[in-house]
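Narrative of accomplishments. A recurring question from our advisory board has been how the design workflow behaves on a single, concrete structure rather than in aggregate. To address it, we present the structure tokens for one chain from the evaluation set, followed by the sequence designed for it. No filtering or post-editing was applied between the two.
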């Protein structure tokens, strides 16, 4: 890893640690339950969850709506944040399934663990780590989900390779993300702010 990669990760870690600790202070992009509803999550499902699960939600879409997550499956949540998508997936896979969340930010992982514990979910666990070096075995997951995370990875080809390493041969990736269009100049990118903005 080069210094630029670590600088990007440090910026992302700092930004999302703040969202975990004080989500109401975020001003540059939408967070929280209302954002989740605008992105297509079931409003009743969101409202049934404790605020601690939804208040730090910082996703850009609804990856769990892109394909089925079935009872008994193993789901890998890449950039799991405080656990909203993992918790919804854990409810879908049921007690015979399993969800593993991985996030770069320790404060997000701590909050996700607390959220899953408060809901009594025993089929979900969270790990601190980077997507470019996932702390999971080969061919572990039936489904990988990701919500606004690959754009934050300094080494996207490695992140994707690691994701596919962790998927079973017939596994699927359900991903929501953002990207820059080709006409956006380097000057415009610099004017918009830091990598994590």
């Amino acid at each position: 890893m080069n210094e630029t990669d670590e600088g990007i990760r440090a910026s992302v870690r700092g930004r999302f640690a703040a969202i975990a600790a004080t989500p109401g202070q975020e001003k540059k992009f939408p967070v929280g339950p209302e954002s989740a509803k605008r992105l297509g999550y079931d409003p009743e499902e969101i409202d049934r969850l404790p605020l601690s699960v939804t208040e730090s939600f910082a996703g850009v879409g609804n990856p769990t709506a892109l394909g089925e997550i079935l009872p008994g499956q193993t789901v890998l949540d890449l950039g799991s944040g405080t656990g909203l998508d993992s918790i919804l997936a854990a409810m879908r896979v049921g007690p015979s399934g399993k969800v593993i969340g991985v996030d770069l930010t320790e404060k997000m992982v701590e909050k996700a663990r607390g959220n899953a514990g408060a809901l009594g979910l025993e089929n979900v666990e969270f790990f601190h780590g980077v997507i470019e070096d996932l702390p999971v075995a080969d061919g572990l997951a039936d489904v990988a989900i990701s919500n606004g995370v690959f754009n934050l990875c300094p080494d996207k080809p490695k992140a994707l390779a690691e994701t596919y390493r962790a998927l079973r041969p017939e596994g699927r990736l359900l991903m929501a993300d953002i990207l820059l269009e080709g006409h956006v100049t380097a000057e415009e990118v610099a004017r918009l702010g830091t990598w994590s903005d």
